[in-house]
Amino acid sequence: MVTKTEENQLNRLESQVDNGGSGAWEYLCLVRKLKLRRSDKVLKHGLSILNNPSKRSALGPEEWTLYEQVAVAAMDCQSLDVAKDCIKVLQKKFPDSKRVGRLEALLLEAKGSWELAEKAYSSLLEDNPLDQTIHKRRVAMAKAQGNIPGAIEWLNKYLEIFMADHDAWRELGEIYVSLQMYKQAAFCYEELILSQPTVPLYHLAYADVLYTLGGLENLQTAKKYYTSTIDLTGGKNTRALFGVCLCTSAIAQITKGKSKEEKEGAQVQSLAAKVLEKDYKQRAPDKLPQLTTALKSLTLSS
Amino acid sequence: MALGFAIGVFGVLILFHAAYSTIQYRGLLKLTEEEFSGPPFNVVIELSLGLVLCMWAALTVPGKFLSIHPDSEENRIVSLPANLDFMIFNHRGKVFPVEMDLKLKQ
């Protein structure tokens, strides 16, 4: 999870390093810690450190982690010869290493030779059958080849063994959403919310999936999760506020003609509408008339 | 920072002095065989002064307090980490050439 302070720090370091200042090593460490995918910048600044022998020896044993990071970034930017050189250096230093073997298989994947990569991964798995990263790379390979059902199958098998891996659950949820299998995606997001209940983004994604599924019960649960997102973010998440308004009007449309006990529903919606209007007035005042007409049509149609 | 530290040390010294005065007062009371009901009034003032100084130092010396609200401006989650374990390499970035001639020198 990237918090706002960390993002500010990252942007500051990035602008500093981009304009030719020092601090490239801190930037690279921060990118590695936050697990971000800034491959072009990592490649540029990592190579500037590695090509400078004094800076390289100043790193000490961290030099090899930098080689690994630069190798992966090079593969992402399609500079495969840079990646190959980095891997050669690592191989010379650590001849029989599983980590370097993984990097080599990753290089084969980046080159596009899927069968060779598959063979390399299976041989690595024979030596250590419980290596999480290799299982995940197999899933990624299936996804890269376009074989999404195969990726789902591998990922399900992986999650049967490693049920606590929330990154994998997130990946599975996103794949299901891309295939419009919303019930399964809802299950994945439920697992995510169970393991990390304080991340509001998961609540929001779950509520979105439930709202897409539709039906009275799903809409009511979606409204609950939109409100929990509002609770967790202190009322600042615009998408959750809109979600509450839409859910209430959709529920009211379905229950039109049935008994009207939904008095607190209208209260939540009017509160959300007020917060939205205040927010728009502050941040985008020229869009305020469109917002008020949209909200009025929502409440009128209910 | 140094001032807060100095005030903290001063507050601790005042507390020690108050403790020493109380022990001396008790010794004096033992000589006159009276009951020890509590420390004398000026020791109590000294104690409260030492308390205020130490508390002020304890709050200022450690530095800036961090917010604990999960939705405060510094702590709010901006983005989830990109799933690097599932990263794939055949994306559209393949057709963009790298703008400079990057090489790893040996």
Q: How does the SSE layout of this entry go?
A:
The complex is a heterodimer of chains A (302) and B (106).
Chain A lengths: L1 E2 H15 L5 H11 L4 H12 L2 H7 L3 H14 L3 H14 L4 H14 L2 H14 L4 H13 L3 H14 L4 H13 L3 H14 L4 H14 L2 H18 L4 H17 L8 H21 L4 H14 L1
Helix pairs in contact in A: 1-2, 2-3, 3-5, 5-6, 5-7, 6-7, 7-8, 8-9, 9-10, 10-11, 11-12, 12-13, 13-14, 13-15, 14-15, 15-16, 15-17, 16-17
Chain B lengths: L1 H31 L8 H20 L16 E3 L27
Helix pairs in contact in B: 1-2
Q: Notable features of this structure?
A:
heterodimer, A: 302 residues, globular, B: 106 residues, mainly alpha, 2 helices, endoplasmic reticulum (chain B), membrane (chain B), transmembrane helix (chain B)
> Biggest interface, which chains?
A-B, 53 and 31 residues
End-to-end CA span of chain A: 38 Å
Mean pLDDT of chain A comes to: 89
- Cα gyration radius of chain B (Å): 32 Å
Membrane topology (chain A): Peripheral membrane protein
TPR repeats (chain A): 166-199
Subcellular location (chain A): Endoplasmic reticulum membrane
Protein name (chain A): ER membrane protein complex subunit 2
Describe the overall structure.
- The complex is a heterodimer of chains A (302) and B (106).
- Chain A is mostly helical.
- Among the domains of chain A are: 1-94; 202-302.
- Chain A has 17 helices and one strand.
- In chain A, α10 packs antiparallel against α11 (166-178).
- Chain A is globular.
- The two termini of chain A are 38 Å apart.
- In chain A, 34% of the residues are buried.
- The mean pLDDT of chain A is 89.
- With 106 residues, chain B is mainly alpha-helical.
- Chain B is built from two helices and one strand, in the order ααβ.
- Chain B is rod-shaped, with a radius of gyration of 32 Å.
- The mean pLDDT of chain B is 84.
- Chain A binds chain B through residues 1-7, 34-37, 40, 43-44, 47, 50-51, 70, 74-79, 81-82, 85-86, 89, 109-110, 112, 132-133, 136-137, 139-141, 143-144, 167-168, 170-171, 198-201, 232-234, 236, and chain B through 69-90, 93-94, 98, 100, 102-106.
- β1 of chain A pairs antiparallel with β1 (77-79) of chain B.
- Chain A: Component of the ER membrane protein complex (EMC).
- Chain A: Part of the endoplasmic reticulum membrane protein complex (EMC) that enables the energy-independent insertion into endoplasmic reticulum membranes of newly synthesized membrane proteins.
- Chain A: This is ER membrane protein complex subunit 2.
- Chain A: Belongs to the EMC2 family.
- Chain A: Keywords: Endoplasmic reticulum, Membrane, Repeat, TPR repeat.
- Chain B: It is found in: Endoplasmic reticulum membrane.
